[in-house]
C-alpha cells in the first residue's frame, strides 16, 4: 500500500453527510457536527499565514459561523458533503482575512467613508 492510501483520514465524507442530513431537518447543529466543522476549519486554516494569532482565531470563528449558518443548504445529489463544507470554511477564513488585511495598491489613494450607522467602507481607490 502506498503511504497516502494507508493514511487515516480525520473524517469520512459518509459520516459528515449523515450528520448534516440528520441535523438539516431541525436546522440545529449537533455537538458532533460542530466538532466536525471545527476539525475542517482547523485543517484549512493551516494553509493561511497569520501575522497575529488573534486574527487567525477571528478568521476561524467566521468560518465556523458560516458553516453553522449554511450547512442546511447542502443537497446530497449535488456532490460531496466534505467538498461543500471545506469550500464554505475556506471562503469564511479568506473573506475575514481580506477584511482584516485589505489589499492596498501601490500608488493609489483610498477614500474611506462613514455610512449613516458609523461604519467605515472604502468608496474609491484612486
List the helices and strands and how they pair.
Blueprint: H1 3-6, H2 13-24, H3 31-45, H4 53-70, H5 81-100, E1 110-114, E2 120-125
Antiparallel strand pairs: 1-2
Please describe what this structure looks like.
By secondary structure, the protein is mainly α. It has one domain (11-125). It has five helices and two strands. Strands 1-2 form a two-stranded antiparallel ribbon. It starts with a helix and ends with a strand. Residues 1-6 have low confidence and may be disordered.
Key terms:
elongated; 126 residues; disordered N terminus; mainly alpha; two-stranded antiparallel sheet; 55% helix; 5 helices; 9% strand
Concise synopsis of the structure shown:
The protein has 5 helices and 2 strands.
Helix content: 40-55%
Please indicate the percent range of residues in DSSP E strands (runs of 2 or more): 5-15%
The sequence of SSEs as H and E is HHHHHEE
- Number of distinct beta strands: 2
* Secondary structure tally, helices: 5
Q: Please give the radius of gyration in angstroms.
A: 18 Å
What is the general shape? elongated
Low-confidence stretches: 1-6
Q: Mind describing the biggest β-sheet?
A: 2 strands, antiparallel
Amino acid at each position: 500500500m502506498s503511504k497516502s492510501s494507508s493514511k487515516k483520514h480525520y473524517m469520512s465524507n459518509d459520516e459528515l453527510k449523515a450528520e448534516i442530513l440528520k441535523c438539516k431537518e431541525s436546522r440545529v447543529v449537533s455537538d458532533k457536527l460542530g466538532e466536525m466543522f471545527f476539525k475542517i476549519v482547523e485543517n484549512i486554516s493551516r494553509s493561511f499565514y497569520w501575522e497575529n494569532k488573534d486574527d487567525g482565531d477571528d478568521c476561524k470563528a467566521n468560518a465556523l459561523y458560516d458553516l453553522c449558518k449554511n450547512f442546511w443548504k447542502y443537497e446530497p445529489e449535488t456532490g460531496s458533503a466534505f467538498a461543500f463544507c471545506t469550500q464554505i470554511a475556506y471562503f469564511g477564513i479568506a473573506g475575514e482575512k481580506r477584511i482584516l488585511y485589505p489589499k492596498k495598491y501601490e500608488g493609489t489613494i483610498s477614500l474611506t467613508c462613514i455610512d449613516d450607522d458609523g461604519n467605515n467602507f472604502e468608496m474609491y481607490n484612486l
